[in-house]
Specification:
The chain is an alpha+beta fold. The chain folds into 2 domains: about 70 residues; about 80 residues, PAS domain (Beta-Lactamase, 2-Layer Sandwich). The strands form 3 sheets. A two-stranded antiparallel sheet has the order 1-2. The protein has a two-stranded antiparallel ribbon with strand order 3-4. A hairpin with a 6-residue loop joins strand 3 and strand 4.
Amino acid sequence: MTTRSEASLAPEWIGGRHVSGRSKSRTQLAIFLSMGVFMSVVAELYRRVRQRAALYQQGLSLRESETRFSTVFHANPIGMSITRLADGQYLDVNRSYLSLFGHTREEVLRHTSLQLQTWATPEDRERLIRTLREQGSARNKESRYRRKSGAAGARRWG
């Protein structure tokens, strides 16, 4: 009967080679370490694939959200515009806004609200901007506006 230490030193075929004793232990250690490195590489690749999949999903969600917003914005029967707070430069307007003020899209998108004189007075815009900065929104506030034709009107915010 062989002892355990003798069995570990017995010759064996590993990777198509006949090995025995200490070289067997070294080969097993090398295989074990190689498997560890291999598993680390696989884990890193898996992490990167999951990260890219998450970014791709976020991009899809963002595009879907932008599409929904754009659809609601442009189909809305209430005249709406998106402007820069700093200078009133128009970034986008819907058809209802163009109809209300009498401008073409090209006229509006090249100018600021002050250039087009859509506010009855510049102070009306300043008052709205002050309210937005202080309260974060303009609920139940009224302001006066002017159409391209010169006709005046009033609007309620929020």
